[in-house]
Design goal:
The complex is a heterodimer of chains A (345) and B (655). Chain A is mainly α and 345 residues long. In chain A, 49% of the residues lie in helices and 4% in strands. The N terminus of chain B is likely disordered. Classes of the chains: A mainly alpha (345), B mainly alpha (655). β4 of chain A pairs antiparallel with β3 of chain B.
Chain lengths: 345, 655
C-alpha cells in the first residue's frame, strides 16, 4: 500500500515538473506571438482575410479536383469573371476515380472533339468512366450506384428514390400520408446532405414541422415534387457504375490509380510507359459509338428503371431527343434550335 | 411542371397557396403566348427546313415537357443546368464553364431572371448547336423585359457607359486593370464583369423560411384573378430599397483591384483595402455589420450613381476636402457629429508612417514588450524552478508555520490577504474585464475566423458593442468603488492616527517603496540562480504591486478612450477627429497590454501554476495556501507568527 502511494506520489511529482516545463514553453511561445503580432501590425500593412480575396479570375484544372471552390461556391460566392453566371453548387467530384486520381486524366477528361466534349464531360460528373469506356458484353449492362465517398455499391441516391416515390406512390401517399412521412423525410435528409440547397433545406424544415396530410404538408409536398427534378443533374453523392461485386469499382479504381502512377513515373519515352498504357487501354473502348446507346436505342445500354429512376424519368432519359441531336452533331451535322417558342426577326 | 397536372393533386384545392415557382410558370406561359403571336410567317418550306424543324420541335416540346427542364422559354437550361457542362483547355489550364444555375430563373433570384438568354447572347450564335459564339455579350445592348402584365419593356444599360467615361473607372482604367489582373476577361468581354456578376437580390440574412412568409401573404390576394409573380416583385422592391450588395461583398469587389499589387504599383495608389481593414469601419464590416461604412458609403455621395465615382481631388467627389465632412455627417452615418469627424482616419496606414498615430503605436509596442516581457520572463523562470525542483531551503519550514497559523481563527485573520471589500472589487473587475475581452477582442482581431464566430454567437456586432459598453461602465463603477474604498481608508487613518492622505497612501500595502526594488533585484538573482534564498516579501510582492498599478492605470486609460469613442459625436464637436483615431489606437493597445498581463501572467500565477493548483483560494476566502504564503510572502508569514505568539492580531484587516 505504502509502495503504491509512494509510486503515485513520484508520478505526481514528475507530472508536476513536466507540466511546469510545458508552461515555460507556452509562455515563451506567447511572447513570440505577441512580439510578432505587434511588429506586423505597425510595420506591415493589415492582412486582408482570404475570404475577401478569393475571387476566381480563372478556374484552373485544380478546381475540378475540389468539392468546393472558395470564392465560387459557398455563401458569399462570386461567378468566375469571364463566366458571369453564378455557380452556386460546384460539380460533383469523385475522389475514388482511379483514372483521375492517378493524375492521368482530368475529372473533365474530354477535350478533343470540340462539338461534343462538353456534353461528354457533363456525363463524367455522374457516370464512372467504365460505364462508357468498357466494352459492352450484354444489354442492358449490369449497373448500379456507387458512393463517391466510399467507392462501394450503394442504394439509389435519395434524390432518385424520392422522385420515384412521389411519382409512383402518389395515390397511396395522398390516402395515407402518415405512413410515408418518415420515409420522405429520411430521403429528403439524404438529398439535403448532398445538395446543401437552401430551398430544399427549407422544405425539409416545413415537412418536419407540419402534420402529415395537413393542407400545408400537401402544399409543401407539391413544391418538393416540382423542385426535385431541378437537382437531377449530378447532385447525388453517387455515380452510376457497372459492377458484379459491391467493391468492383473501388478495386478497379485502386488498380487504375496504381497503374496510372506507374505510367506517370516512367520516362516519357520509356517502353514501360507504352506497355502500361497498352495494358490499361487495351481493355477499354476509347470512344463511345453513339449517344443513343443509352438515349434512344432499344433496348438501351442502361436500364434506368433498374437504377431506381421513376418510370417517367426513365422514359425521358431513354428517348432523350437532345441526345439524338448531339449524336447528329457528332456526325458533323449542325442543329438549329427550333423557333416555335421564339420570335424570329 | 405542376405536379397536379395529371389528375391527383398534392395541393389543397385552394389556389392561394401558389408558390413562386408556379408564378414563374404563369410568366413563362405568358412569354410563350407572346412569342407565338409574333412568329414571322415567312419561312421557306423546303424539305431540309421541314425535317430540321420537325425534329427540333420534338426536342423542345419534350425538353419543356420533361420534368427536369427549367423554366426558360428557349429551353437552354435543358443542357446548361448541368454543372458538368464544361471543358478544360489543357493549353491554357483554364476551365470553360457553360453552366447556368436554373434556380436563378426558377426562384427569381435576381432582376435578370426575367430575361431570356437571347436577350444577352447573340441569337444567331446560340441558336445553332454547337454554338458559334463569336461576339461576347455586350451589356449595353437593349433588352426586352417581360413585365407583370405580359408587356415588353425595353431597357438598356447604355447610359452607364457614358457615366463611367467621366469617372475614375473609365474604359481605359478598366482595360488596364483587366490586363494587370492577368486578363480574367477574354478579349472583347464587357468590362462591367470586373465588378458585376449575375445580379442577385440582396436578401441580407433572411432564411428561406423568413422569406416565404411575406410572399405567401401577397399570394393571398394575387391569385389567378390578379396574377403577379409575387416572389419576384417582393424581392425586387425589397432589394431595391437597400444596397444591392452587402458590405463584405462590396469590399470584395473593390479588393479585386484595390488590393492587387500590380495595379497598386502601376497606379501608385495605396492599399485602400488593407488600410480600411485597420479602421473601426473595416473591422466592423469583417464581423458582419451592415450598418458600418463600406467603400460606397463614403466614395459615392448621396443621390449619386456609383458609376460616376470621382477622385478625391475632384471637388464633386464626396471624399474631396470640400465635401468629406458632409459625407461623414450624412443622415445615415454621423448626423450629429462635428465637422472634425472627417479628420478621423478611415484608411489607417501605420506602416506608411502616420505621424503621431505611428508614434503612439511604437510607444505602446515598447511598453508592451518592456513590461509584459519581463513579467512573462519572471513567470517562466518560476515555472522553470518548479520544473527542475529548485526551492528556497526555508520554504518547507515556513509552509509548516503558515499551515499551523491557518488552523487557528486568529492566525487566519493575521494571514488574511484580501478582505471582503477587496474581493468584491476584484470580482467586479473579473466580470467586467472578461466581458470586455469577449466583446472587444473580436473587433481587434476581426480578420481571424474565431472573431467572426464569437461575434456571431454573441448576436452580432451591435449586441457586442452594447454589451461592451455596459461592461465598460461596470469597470468604471468598480474603479469608483475602489477609489471610494481607498478614500474611506484615508479618512479613517486621519481620524485614528492623524496621518495625512499622502502619507497614508505611501503606507498602504500596495504602495511601492525602495525596499521593493531591492526585493525585486533579490528575486531576479534568485530566479537566475545567483542567490540561494528568496527575498522576504510581505503581503504583496513586487510583481503583484506592478500588476495592481497596471490595472489602475489601464482602467483610467481604457475608460477615458472608450468614452471618447462612445461619444464620438461630442468628441468631434470639441476636438479634432484625430483624437478619435488616437483613442482607437490607445484603447486597442492598452487592452492588448491588459489582456497579456491579466490573461497570461496573472492567470499563470493564480490558476495554472503547479504551485497553486488547482487555483489560489485568495480571492474566495481571502487566504493564500501555506505553500504559496511561504514561497511568495515569507515576511508576511513571519510577521503573522510574531503577532500570533505575542497574542496580537485578530482585528479586521484593512488596507
Amino acid at each position: 500500500m505504502d509502495k503504491a502511494r509512494s509510486a503515485m506520489g513520484a508520478i505526481g511529482r514528475v507530472g508536476k515538473r513536466l507540466y511546469a516545463f510545458i508552461l515555460v514553453l507556452v509562455l515563451l511561445y506567447v511572447f513570440y506571438l505577441t512580439v510578432a503580432y505587434l511588429v506586423m501590425m505597425v510595420f506591415y500593412p493589415s492582412p486582408v482575410p482570404a475570404r475577401l480575396l478569393e475571387w476566381p479570375g480563372h478556374l484552373d484544372a485544380s478546381s475540378l479536383r475540389k468539392a468546393d471552390v472558395p470564392g465560387v461556391t459557398g455563401p458569399a460566392a462570386r461567378a468566375p469573371f469571364a463566366h458571369y453566371h453564378q455557380v452556386g453548387q460546384w460539380m460533383q467530384f469523385d475522389p475514388i476515380n482511379g483514372c483521375t486520381i492517378s493524375g492521368c486524366h482530368e475529372p473533365l477528361p474530354h477535350t478533343r472533339s470540340a462539338n461534343v466534349r462538353a456534353f461528354a464531360n457533363l456525363h463524367a460528373t455522374f457516370l464512372t468512366c467504365q460505364m462508357c469506356h468498357e466494352p459492352v458484353k450484354a444489354r442492358p449492362v449490369k449497373a448500379g450506384w456507387v458512393s463517391t465517398q466510399t467507392g462501394l455499391a450503394t442504394d439509389a441516391p435519395g434524390l432518385v428514390q424520392l422522385m420515384r416515390l412521389l411519382e409512383t406512390e402518389r395515390e397511396p401517399i395522398a390516402r395515407n400520408p402518415a405512413a410515408y412521412h418518415e420515409q420522405i423525410l429520411s430521403l429528403l435528409a439524404q438529398i439535403v446532405t448532398v445538395s446543401k440547397d437552401p430551398l430544399l433545406q427549407y422544405l425539409q424544415i416545413e415537412i418536419t414541422t407540419t402534420v402529415p396530410g395537413s393542407p400545408v404538408w400537401r402544399d409543401v409536398l407539391a413544391r418538393l415534387t416540382d423542385e426535385l427534378p431541378l437537382h437531377a443533374r449530378g447532385e447525388y453523392g453517387a455515380k452510376i457504375a457497372h459492377f458484379e461485386a459491391p467493391d468492383d469499382y473501388l478495386r478497379v479504381s485502386q488498380h487504375l490509380r496504381e497503374t496510372g502512377r506507374t505510367f506517370l513515373a516512367a520516362a516519357p519515352e520509356a517502353p514501360e510507359r507504352k506497355r502500361v498504357q497498352d495494358q490499361i487501354h487495351s481493355q477499354m473502348q476509347l470512344s463511345l459509338d453513339r449517344c443513343t446507346a443509352c438515349h434512344g436505342d432499344s433496348p438501351p445500354l442502361v436500364d434506368f428503371t433498374a437504377l431506381g429512376y421513376s418510370p417517367k424519368r426513365a422514359a425521358f432519359l431513354t428517348s432523350m431527343p437532345t441526345a439524338r441531336q448531339v449524336q447528329s452533331i457528332r456526325e458533323g451535322r449542325q442543329f438549329y434550335l427550333p423557333s416555335i417558342t421564339e420570335e424570329r426577326r | 411542371m405542376d405536379s397536379s397536372l395529371d389528375g391527383l393533386s398534392w395541393r389543397r384545392p385552394d389556389a392561394t397557396l401558389g408558390t413562386n415557382m408556379h408564378r414563374m410558370s404563369q410568366d413563362t406561359q405568358e412569354m410563350k403566348t407572346i412569342s407565338r403571336q409574333r412568329l414571322a410567317p415567312h419561312y421557306r418550306l423546303t424539305a431540309a427546313w421541314f425535317v430540321r424543324h420537325v425534329l427540333a420541335a420534338a426536342v423542345v416540346v419534350l425538353a419543356v415537357a420533361c420534368p427536369a427542364a427549367a423554366e426558360d422559354p428557349e429551353g437552354c437550361l435543358t443542357c446548361h443546368r448541368y454543372q458538368g457542362l464544361a471543358r478544360l483547355d489543357p493549353r491554357e489550364n483554364q476551365v470553360h464553364l457553360y453552366y447556368v444555375d436554373p434556380s436563378y430563373y426558377d426562384r427569381a433570384l435576381g432582376p435578370h431572371a426575367r430575361l431570356r438568354c437571347t436577350q444577352c447572347h447573340e441569337r444567331s450564335e446560340v441558336e445553332v448547336i454547337p454554338h458559334k459564339a463569336v461576339n461576347p455579350v455586350n451589356c449595353t445592348r437593349a433588352c426586352h423585359v417581360i413585365g407583370a402584365e405580359g408587356m415588353e419593356i425595353q431597357f438598356s444599360h447604355s447610359g452607364i457607359e457614358g457615366m463611367l467615361q467621366g469617372s475614375v473607372h473609365d474604359a481605359k482604367a478598366l482595360q488596364t486593370s483587366n490586363e494587370l489582373l492577368g486578363k480574367p476577361l477574354r478579349e472583347g468581354q464587357s468590362s462591367c464583369l470586373l465588378c458585376h456578376d449575375e445580379p442577385r437580390f440582396h436578401r441580407g440574412t433572411e432564411t428561406w423560411a423568413q422569406q416565404a412568409a411575406p410572399i405567401r401573404r401577397c399570394n393571398v390576394c394575387h391569385t389567378e384573378a390578379l396574377p403577379v409573380n409575387t416572389a419576384y416583385f417582393y424581392w425586387h422592391v425589397f432589394a431595391r430599397s437597400r444596397p444591392a450588395r452587402g458590405n463584405i461583398d462590396t469590399v470584395r469587389v473593390c479588393a479585386v483591384c484595390h488590393h492587387n499589387q500590380a495595379i497598386l504599383q502601376q497606379t501608385k495608389m495605396s492599399d485602400a483595402v488593407s488600410s480600411y481593414l485597420f479602421s473601426f469601419h473595416g473591422k466592423a464590416m469583417l464581423l458582419g455589420s451592415e450598418e458600418t461604412a463600406s467603400c460606397l458609403n463614403c466614395h459615392v455621395g448621396e443621390m449619386q450613381n456609383v458609376h460616376v465615382m470621382k477622385s478625391a481631388q475632384d471637388p464633386n467627389s464626396p471624399t474631396s476636402p470640400m465635401q468629406v465632412a458632409d459625407t461623414c455627417r450624412s443622415p445615415a452615418c454621423h448626423p450629429l457629429a462635428g465637422a472634425e469627424m472627417s479628420q478621423a482616419a478611415v484608411h489607417l496606414e501605420l506602416a506608411r508612417g502616420f505621424g503621431i498615430e505611428w508614434l503612439v503605436a511604437v510607444v505602446f509596442i515598447g511598453m508592451i514588450v518592456f513590461t509584459f516581457g519581463p513579467s512573462l520572463m519572471l513567470s517562466a523562470l518560476e515555472m522553470l524552478h518548479i520544473g527542475i525542483g529548485r526551492e528556497d531551503p526555508h520554504t518547507h519550514e515556513r509552509a509548516k508555520v503558515a499551515a499551523e497559523l491557518l488552523e487557528h481563527r486568529r492566525g487566519r485573520r493575521l494571514l488574511e490577504r484580501f478582505n471582503l471589500h477587496q474581493r468584491l472589487q476584484h470580482w467586479t473587475l473579473v466580470v467586467a474585464f472578461a466581458t470586455l475581452v469577449v466583446t472587444g477582442f473580436p473587433l481587434k482581431f476581426a480578420d481571424r475566423d474565431w472573431a467572426a464566430w464569437t461575434i456571431w454567437h454573441i448576436g452580432g456586432v451591435d449586441v457586442a458593442r452594447h454589451v461592451h459598453r455596459v461592461a465598460g461602465v461596470m469597470l468604471i463603477l468598480g474603479f469608483v468603488y475602489h477609489m471610494g474604498y481607498v478614500g474611506s481608508l484615508i479618512i479613517r487613518k486621519k481620524r485614528r492616527e492623524g496621518t495625512g492622505p499622502i502619507q497614508t497612501i505611501f503606507r498602504m500595502p500596495l504602495a511601492v517603496s525602495p525596499s521593493d526594488m531591492k526585493e525585486m533585484l533579490h528575486l531576479i538573482l534568485y530566479l537566475v540562480g545567483l542567490r540561494k534564498t528568496r527575498p522576504l516579501q510581505g503581503r504583496f510582492s513586487m510583481p503583484e504591486k506592478f500588476e495592481y498599478f497596471g490595472v489602475f492605470w489601464g482602467t483610467l486609460l481604457l475608460g477615458l478612450t472608450g468614452m471618447l469613442m462612445w461619444h464620438s459625436d461630442w468628441t468631434t464637436r470639441y476636438m479634432s477627429g484625430r483624437v478619435l483615431t488616437l483613442a482607437y489606437l490607445i484603447h486597442g493597445f492598452e487592452a492588448f497590454l491588459a489582456l497579456l498581463h491579466v490573461g497570461v501572467v496573472h492567470m499563470v500565477s493564480v490558476i495554472f501554476s503547479p504551485a497553486v493548483a488547482p487555483v489560489s483560494p485568495a480571492m474566495f476566502n481571502g487566504l493564500s495556501g501555506p505553500e504559496e504564503l511561504a514561497e511568495a510572502h515569507p515576511a508576511w508569514v513571519e510577521e503573522a507568527k510574531r503577532k500570533f505568539d505575542a497574542g496580537q492580531g485578530g482585528e479586521a484587516n484593512h488596507g
